[in-house]
Specification:
The complex is a heterodimer of chains A (171) and B (552). Chain A is an alpha/beta fold and 171 residues long. Chain A has five helices and seven strands; from the N terminus they run H-E-E-E-H-E-H-E-H-E-E-H. In chain B, 4% of the residues lie in helices and 53% in strands. In chain B, strand 27 and strand 28 form a beta hairpin. The chains are: A alpha/beta (171), B mainly beta (552).
């Protein structure tokens, strides 16, 4: 009996989530204080790429699929920016254990993205990120238009397809 | 206990908050976001691998987070349900509740949060409240938090409250203040300097009644910390020192010695090369809001662990767990990118990572001839700074290479050599230290844009514990949306021939945008899950696991 109640609870919760999805009207990023790799404070509401789309990716140094995603994007990033003007903003959710590894790692890998640190997970919680990698696509107005979790081989294509879709809409 | 919060006016206030704020003269639209996850497991008894019978047969953990932001207001809650908690989680996670809910206002440099919150001062050495679902840890503080930014570059935080203990609250009160100064942001003339300096300090105090019949225990225990961060160009230095007054508790066997800890790290980063070195010393720094708490309960602070957080099954089979009563450690890591179109780098370049960590005991000596080290009710021991602890707790040397071989094939290889002190880390005296050598190969092959196959080959060799292990995994990925996988971990080196078992698993799943459903069937070996030096034992299981997660 207890199991049935539990399953029903889960079911009702998920229905709630689906209906909540329709409530989402304002798609701008919440304003949360984060840090740059040098330790300077920054605010997520200041993310800017002119009128061009942004890929906002939450990741961590200890997350294998995240590293795969970043490596895959890094290999085609020059082509992406040239074609679409898109910018990748990568927010590390590494906590005090691994946060000191972030700067050496991204330099060592020669990744050329815009990096931020969210050591206390404030931005992660404000964006309701549960697991990493979790990637959001923002249009030229800075509105969230899509989000993706997990990463499978070739998953970076989904991101650029979405970006192309935004650009064709804008034009 | 169950549904306790449903009766609370506070909870209803949170639920109705969007309505209140909507009534305000505010043209900004609100945004609701959230996530949901459930793990449902069906258990079979399996005496061979040591999986006990589960009377409920089926267990379930679930949670849903809702966050609402409108202008300067935000509010949120998390509903949690354990029917009952999955095997390996503390059974005090039981039933339903809304253990996390908050309302927050943030404007003109002032942020007020009422309800539950997560906070960290500095690197967390005197205060860190956090949540780690996989470990079943949630020590969120329930109370009030204030953050004030009087001028650009200065941030002051103050808080008070009780910590979460499953569906209850800890008895102790936690109070704290922290101030952070970013020199370059405060002073106009330093704004464009190449050297960036910031420093900060924290003070945290806990209050708990003393009802001990024998000892007079401090009701208020204070802890303080100072930190400094300097960066210039490619170099970054960070250091933090923490001190805690005497705090007799179960974990330190009720000794009256004060505690302290030092953490130092330096890093160098340029394109294609990153180096990080860090060192720490911990002396009697277990700090909880209830002196009788053990395991992962009611911890106020967090000691950054220095061992690498591994992700493959065998490299994380023997993970280190931070010894808050005393340890000394160092870690260094080098990441180097060998350029493309070179002999060593190949056509696409090769990424190399070398990591080393070593953790030893803290040197402790008797305070006098009649007092044993760590003797209850005494000053415990003395730990001079100029002496090194001799006993090795943990050591890890690993090197890994990652390379794209051609347009279709990508390879990752890793070798690791590890020393793991079973006596200390698992608290099983007499078992000695385990030496393990581990090799891992991970190959990804892309047939075309939509189809790919990933295989993992792992081997762990050791003479202790359960002996040698071999593992194979194959994962087929379709359009980066569907996956099917099978894996087998074979304990071929077990000294008991009956325990040379295959732990076979098959799984499948689908990910669509931010929604994911996965199902796994098979045997799971007994082990330890660790995140950030904090660990949880996971018993052996045999059965079905369904995971559904969604974000919006």
């Amino acid at each position: 009996m207890k199991n049935i109640i539990a399953l029903c609870t889960a079911f009702i919760l998920s229905i709630g989530l689906i209906s909540a999805q329709e409530l989402q009207s304002n798609k701008k990023l919440p304003a949360v204080t984060i840090k740059t790799l040098e330790g300077k404070t920054a605010n997520s509401s200041d993310f800017n790429n002119g009128e061009k789309p942004i890929i906002l990716s939450f990741w961590a140094t200890w997350c294998r699929p995240c590293l795969k995603e970043m490596t895959a994007i890094s290999e085609v990033y020059d082509d992406w920016t040239e074609e679409t003007g898109v910018k990748l903003i990568a927010v590390s959710i590494d906590d005090s254990k691994t946060v000191r590894n972030v700067a050496p790692l991204v330099s060592g890998k020669s990744w050329n993205f815009e990096f931020y640190l969210d050591e206390n997970g404030d931005f992660k919680r404000a964006m309701s990120v549960n697991t990493v990698p979790h990637t959001f696509i923002l249009n030229g107005k800075g509105e969230i238009v899509a989000q993706f979790t997990a990463f499978g081989e070739g998953g970076e294509k989904k991101l650029i397809e979405k970006v192309r879709e935004i650009i064709s809409k804008d034009n | 206990m169950r549904f306790k919060y449903i009766n609370s006016p506070y909870f209803w206030f949170v639920l109705c908050l969007p309505l209140f704020t909507a009534a305000q003269e505010n043209n900004q639209e609100g945004r609701l976001s959230g996530n949901f996850q459930t793990d449902i497991q069906y258990y079979n008894a399996d005496s061979l691998i040591g999986a006990a019978e589960v009377p409920e047969k089926l267990l379930l953990n679930a949670f849903a987070n809702f966050n609402y932001v409108k202008g300067p207001f935000s509010a949120g809650l998390r509903f949690e349900s354990y029917q009952n908690a999955l095997v390996g989680f503390d059974p005090r996670y039981n039933g339903n509740g809304i253990p996390y809910k908050y309302i927050s206002y943030n404007n003109y440099g002032v942020e007020v949060t009422a309800g539950n919150f997560y906070e960290q001062f500095g690197s967390g050495m005197v205060l860190r409240s956090y949540e780690e679902k996989n470990l079943g840890i949630d020590n969120a503080i329930e109370g009030i938090r204030l953050k004030i930014k009087p001028v650009e570059g200065i941030l002051i935080k103050a808080l008070a409250g009780n910590q979460r203990l499953y569906f209850e609250k800890g008895v102790g009160i936690v109070r704290g203040v922290d101030a952070d100064f970013s020199v370059n942001n405060i002073f106009e003339r330093f704004k464009d300097k190449k050297t960036f300096v910031s420093f900060g300090g924290s003070f945290v105090s806990k209050y708990q009644q003393d009802k001990d019949p024998v000892y007079i225990l401090p009701k208020n225990v204070g802890a303080m910390a100072g930190r400094l961060n300097i960066s210039r160009g490619k170099i970054n230095l960070y250091s933090e020192y923490a001190y805690k007054i005497n705090d007799p508790c179960v974990v330190n066997n009720y000794i009256y010695k004060p505690g302290d800890a030092l953490y130092i790290s330096a890093s160098y980063a340029q394109k294609g090369l990153g180096i990080m070195v860090a060192a720490k010393r911990i002396d009697n720094m277990d700090f909880r809001s209830d002196r009788s708490a053990t395991a992962n309960d009611l911890q106020i602070n967090y000691m950054p662990a220095l061992s690498k957080q591994h992700v493959y099954s065998f490299s994380s089979m023997y993970p280190y767990s931070t010894q808050t009563n005393g340890e000394m450690g160092i870690q260094s890591e080098l990441t180097y990118n060998i350029k493309k179109n070179t002999i060593l780098g190949g056509k696409y370049g090769t990424s190399v990572t070398v990591n080393f960590s070593k953790i030893n005991s803290l040197y402790k000596e008797k305070i006098n001839d009649t007092t044993e080290i760590q003797q209850k009710g005494t000053l415990g021991y003395s730990a001079p700074w100029n002496k090194m602890g001799k006993e090795s707790y943990f050591q890890d040397v690993n090197i890994s290479l990652s390379r794209k071989i051609n347009k279709k094939l990508r390879a990752f290889v890793m070798y690791m050599n590890q020393l793991y002190n079973i006596d200390v880390i698992e608290d099983h005296p007499g078992e000695g230290t385990l030496n393990a050598q581990i090799g891992i190969v991970d190959l990804s092959y892309k047939f075309n844009d939509n189809n790919s196959l990933r295989t993992e080959w792992q081997y762990l060799a050791t003479k202790k514990d359960r002996g040698d292990w071999a593992m194979f995994l194959a994962e087929y990925n379709l359009k980066s949306t569907w996956f099917v996988a099978m894996s087998d971990q074979y304990n071929l080196g077990n000294t008991d021939p009956n325990k040379r078992i295959h732990y076979l698993n098959v799984s499948a799943g689908i990910t669509k945008n931010a929604n994911r459903v996965a199902i796994t069937y098979g045997k799971q070996r007994e082990g330890v899950v660790c995140i950030g030096g904090v660990c949880r034992n996971v018993p052996a299981t045999n059965g079905f696991l369904i995971t559904v997660s969604s974000s919006f």
